[in-house]
Structures are given as C-alpha cells and as structure tokens.
Design brief:
alpha+beta, four-stranded mixed β-sheet, 14 helices, 36% helix, DNAAF3_C, DNAAF3
Length: 414
C-alpha cells in the first residue's frame, strides 16, 4: 500500500527524481533520511484512517480494495500502519541499527570479525558468478554492514529507522512465548538484483578495463525512474506520456479529442486474506480468471492444483528460482529448479520456451481448464516440499534481535 501510494503520488507534489529516491530508500534501506521518514509517517497516518472505512478508501484510493479482508485482518493492518506513523519514542521504538547488527552477528557467527572478507567472497564468488557482475564491492559491503543499499545523499543523512521493515514473531524467552518485534529480512543477497543488474539501455551495462562503468545502485535508480514514468503516464493521452508536467485536458475538450488515444485504464489492487491461496478456487469469481500468476521462490510450496484452478486456460505461470540466494550450492539450485518443474507439472502446467535467463525464472503455461484433482495419488518418488532446498526465509538467521540485554522486545512496549 505504501509503495503504491508513493509510486502514484501526484507529480505536482513530488517530482520524478524525488519520487524515485524515496522509493529506493523505503524499499531497500534500513535507515532513511529525515524527509523520507516524514513522508512515510504522513502516508501511514493517512492510510491508517482509511483502512477501517472501505467506502472512503475506494473514493480516495480507487486503485485499492480491502473488501476481501476480514475485520480482524483490517484491524491488524491498521495497527501496523499506526506503528509506522508513531513518533512518540523516536528511533528507540525500533532500534534498526542494533537489530541489523544482531542479525549479522548471528548470521556470520565466528566469521563476524572477518565480515568484510565474507561479503567480498559472497559477492565475487557467488553473485558475480551468477550474473550480477555490476554490483560494486563498496555498495555491497556497505549494505552488509549498515543495511543502507542506496546512498543517494551524504552518508550522515541516514539515521531514521525504516519501520516498514519491521516484523513480529513469537519467541521463547525464559521458557515463555513472547511476542517480539524485530528485523528478520534479508541480510545475505541484498536488494540490488531486483532492478540493478539488467537494463534496456545497454550503455548502462558497459565495462571499461573489465569493470562496469555504472554501479548497481545507479542502474536501479534508472530502472525505477522508468517504471515510475510509465505509471505516471497511465490514463493520460499518449502524446503527453513523456512529459510529467503536461496534464491531460478536461474530458470532452477539443484538445483531448485530437491528442490521441488514451492509455490503458488504471489497475485495481485487491488485498486477500492470509492463507487464501489454498481456498480461492472455491469461489466462482476466481475460477479460471487469472492470466498471469507470479510465485516467489519462498512461496513455491503453495503451487498446486488448487492455485492452478484459478488460472485461465493458456494462462502463464512465472516462478522465481533461487539463483541469487548466496547460501545455496549449485547442486541445491538445480534440485530446487527440478522441484519447481515437478510441482508445476502436477498442477497442470507445461514448460514454456524461456525469453530470459533460465536460471532466474521458470516459465509455464496452463494446459487447459480443469479443477483441482481430488483423486488419490500414487506415492511419488519426488521428495516432499519440506525436503526441497531451503526457502529464502530459512536461509537468513532467526536470531532474537532484542535489546542489549538479549531479551526480545515485547509488543506492548510499542
């Protein structure tokens, strides 16, 4: 919600450059600049007021719908947004610096004192070998040490904790289960591989003396700006899409009638209940409806006939593979890709010719219209999902990121 609110911000209020920088900080940095942190608080406060009122929400944010959520889930979503907007206790309410360091210490263990060498090894011997050569040593090492992947301003400006990265867990403390809030996100691969290793503009990927001329951060910013420019062009005449400052004429005006065809209609984002992937096919409105299904590598266990029943005949399935998970060995990557193929085949999908790197995504197409197969199945020689290579959320350490005393942070403290 916050990311889309930022991406669809009025160009009169926030320019493209500022918008892209704020996007990168919120999405990829553990620490924010003060102006970006203020923007997050402002947007979170606004969203927290809209979540309990679906009618008002759809009037003010027509691209968002929460009607499929239960009341309890809306309350939980509102609580998260209010935590993001809270200012009473400042950075101490979510001490991101200490939480990040605790995660890195637990992840590296006895290698913590040699963390610079470990990060260089992971970058050069794993990420570079798997196609991410544009990631620079300094930016990767800085992210591993501080959580700041995109340093777009002076380094001293990043001191506000990014509360949008917080998550909660039930941890055992002194023999009791305690609810704690901390950071359990990625500390191994980094956000660079999402937007920063490929580009349509090949000049960004040029090398000089064997070294890339642009860093992954610069490529990421370029790609994000292009995405935001395309989003800003939706619903406007095509001949004005290249100019964010030029606004469409009023409906029915002669200028609009002669300015060309309109861009595609805006999208609508529907939030669904947690765990609904297994039950969507029971509702007629979702059966054979979707043309494209994207499954992250950490959600492959949800890929089954139930989810396939929601796909239209000929629909496309795109599955993220584990290519850039640095803790997996080559044989584990191959086993994971093979397991994805088995699950997709059992769900009724057939492999497609790959238009991109086969090691990054697996592409499939729906064979035909059919519901979930409830007939008894013969035992399969394939290992169960639990025996597949570790998922992304299992690769990072599960350290208790508490305060200096080592105790978890109770939710009641916030």
């Amino acid at each position: 919600m916050l990311i889309f609110s930022l991406a669809l911000e009025d160009p009169e209020k926030m320019g493209l450059q500022e918008q892209s920088e704020a996007f990168l900080e919120v999405w990829g940095n553990a620490l924010l600049r003060a102006p970006v942190a203020a923007f997050v608080r402002e947007q979170a406060s606004r969203l927290a007021l809209l979540v309990p009122e679906p009618d008002r929400l759809e009037r003010e944010l027509p691209w968002l719908s929460l009607r499929a959520l239960k009341f309890r889930e809306r309350d939980e979503l509102e609580a998260v947004l209010r935590f993001w907007s809270c200012e009473e206790r400042g950075p101490q309410a979510f001490p991101m610096g200490r939480l990040w360091d605790a995660r890195v210490r637990h992840y590296l263990g006895s290698r913590y004192d040699a963390r610079c060498g470990v990060s260089d090894w992971d970058l050069r011997m794993k990420l570079h070998d798997r196609g991410a050569q544009v990631i620079h040593t300094q930016e990767f090492r800085r992210w591993r040490d501080t959580g700041v992947a995109f340093e777009l301003r002076d380094s001293s400006a990043y001191h506000e904790p990014n509360r949008t990265l917080a998550s909660g867990r039930l941890l055992t403390h002194c023999g009791e289960r305690v609810a704690a809030r901390g950071y359990w996100g990625d500390i191994a691969t980094g956000p660079f591989v999402a937007f920063g290793i490929e580009a349509d503009d090949q000049s960004l990927l040029q090398t000089r003396n064997g070294q890339p001329t642009k860093t992954a951060g610069e490529i990421t910013q370029h790609n994000v700006m292009e995405v935001l420019r395309e989003l800003a062009a939706w619903g406007r005449p095509r001949d004005t899409q290249g100019d964010r400052e030029k606004q469409p004429e009023p409906e029915g005006s002669p200028e609009q009638e002669t300015s060309g065809d309109l861009a595609p209609a805006p999208f609508k984002l529907h939030f669904l209940s947690l765990g609904s992937a297994r039950s969507l096919h029971h509702k007629g409105c979702y059966q054979a409806r979707f043309q494209l299904l994207y499954v992250a590598c950490g959600m492959v266990h949800l890929l089954g006939p139930e989810l396939a029943a929601c796909m239209a005949p000929g629909g496309n399935l795109l599955v993220e593979l584990a290519r850039f998970l640095v803790d997996l060995r080559p044989e584990q990557l191959q086993a994971f890709a093979a397991r994805v193929g088995e699950l997709a085949g059992a769900a009724g999908f057939t492999p497609c010719a790959s238009a991109g790197p086969a090691e990054t995504f697996a592409r499939f197409a729906k064979q035909g219209a059919r519901g979930p197969d409830t007939r008894p199945r013969a035992p399969s020689a394939a290992p169960p999902v639990a025996a597949a290579p570790p998922q992304p959320h299992d690769l990072a350490s599960h350290a208790t990121t508490g305060l200096d005393s080592g105790a978890p942070v109770p939710l009641s403290d916030f």
